[in-house]
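lol so apparently i was supposed to do this last week
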Amino acid sequence: MSAGFASRLDPVLPAVAEHFGTPFHIYDLQGLHETATAFQDAFRGLASREYFAVKGQPNPAMLRRLREYGFGFDCSSPAELAAATMAGATGEDICFTSNNTSLGELAEALELGAIITADDETVVDKLIAMGARPRSLALRVHPGTAGAVGESYLGDTESAKFGVRVDRLAAVAAKAATLRPHRFGLHMMLGSGILRPEPFLLTLDLLLEQVAALGLDVDFLNLGGGIGIPYRPQEQAFDLPAFARAVRERLDAAGVRPRILFECGRYILTPHGVLVTRVLNRMSKWREMVGVDSGMNALIRPGMYPHAYHHITVHEGQGRPLETVDVVGSLCENNDKFAIQRRLPRTAEGDLLLVHDTGAHALSMAFTYNGRLRPQELILHPDGTVERIRRAETIEDYFATLTCDADRLEVVRQ
Ligand SMILES: Cc1ncc(COP(=O)(O)O)c(C=O)c1O
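anyway here it is w/ pyridoxal-5'-phosphate bound
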């Protein structure tokens, strides 16, 4: 959460909490504007496009805003394709980077005219069998151990789920050529939450190496998502202008000008959202526990990833004595904690806590275990007004799928 966002939200927060009720994720459109324009500025003059990763934030109201900056959308499921379409995206505004894909999903993405990123050789085989003619086709490449960057999200090579093995690339590219796409490209994504440009430059190098070694004619290279944000106050932000300069230099040195695509989600939106939750209970166990009215059902990262950190501030907490607490939700899981042994200003029941950096990969990963329902989403406009863009789930929503067509099958045994 930037200082600017805090200064915009602080004065209105009690009234917003009173009016809409807690908990809620709230997104700062001014901050989004600043990041989106900085992204455009960094890559100005280079043929490139950001395809925002819809998995990070699928609310069409937010996607419509992102479209205003010329971004396309990276989708990986039919629901994400629908969200992108609802936001007005058509054809090659959409990049379908899925994995373990069904024929039906592939047909849907083709029907929309999306850029198809084949994550596996079988996708190319299926496209051939379908008689498909994708206008734009990319092969996602797994570089093997050459792509190990420490912060890997690919996992070790042996257990890798994503991409075409680099030693099969020549053969798969030859098959892909029989589909005669208008535009052909390569895709590679080495990791996630990465705060240094080097792994992305390595991605570019590895792709350029394959282009040269195999004599491929590529129109575009997709470097994926994965640019990190400083979740911890002491972390340094990613140096986007320096990265953009280095990309230009690499392409100049290679003497090629493929269009560069990105699928960033976290970098674009995460710092511009916070989860606002109210203290329900103060509990003294072996440790001091601050129980709040939200939980990992609304933000799973701290419970799911052992090293995930979300900064927490207490509204009007300045000047209070500090104490060490666990901040906990209401799920019947001991890892339902937003913070463990965190130094925070002393809180009381009714206080508002801000869990930072929930603009992406927060509500999109939410779930309803224990019947704890997903919270509402609000946006903070630059003029200070606050608008609801998704209501909180209700008990009726929770039971909605019980209403279904009567259907009972009696299998006749032979
Ligand atoms: C294929 C692909 N593209 C893009 C992204 C977005 O990553 P991030 O939001 O970290 O930029 C992901 C994240 O898992 C991904 O798997």
